[in-house]
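Supplementary Methods, section 5.1.

A reviewer requested that the exact input to the structure prediction be made available. We therefore reproduce it here, unchanged from the version used in the analyses.
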Amino acid sequence: MKRLIVASAGLFGALALAAQGTAAPAKARAQAAAQAVPPSKAQIIAAARDVMTSARYATLATIGDGGQPQARIMDPMVPDKEMTIWLGTTPLSRKVGEILKNGRVTLLYFDTKGLEYVTVLGTADVVTDKAEKAKHWKAEWSAFYKEGAKGDDFVLIRVKPSRIEVVSPRHKIMNDMKTWLPVSVNLP
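The structure derived from this sequence is encoded token-by-token as follows.
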């Protein structure tokens, strides 16, 4: 019976329902039906921002040599009002070279407590401007960059989202029960 729930609700839908103490398929279908009115763009973006903040860390995927995706854990800034995401790194990192060749990236935030996630698809560029580096600096990065935001060993990666996908039970934003597709919104 549990397999039926996973097959019909999607993995994260099933996990979220299980976390809420919902095991009956009828109740799972009723909760899905309650989401018949899709959330607004503003609600999706607000939920995404909340999940991204709760998750703290994100996996950044770039396109590596030969088209093979490369993924690594990052410590991003909280998205700004336009949902732009800033990350810090060394200019010698593999990800910087990959972004300079092909700026298409994906960021995945997963909040283990809420069993919710946000996927951000967008375009990244490398920023070396000293004012931007100072503006988007985290004090906890000091252990990695000896001269802080002023140093040449620190650059920013700016991710401008083109699409955001969200699954968040606490915001009542769930994936499609048949296809498992998350709720998404395109950004300018």
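Confidence is low (pLDDT under 50) at residues 1-9. These observations are discussed further in the main text.
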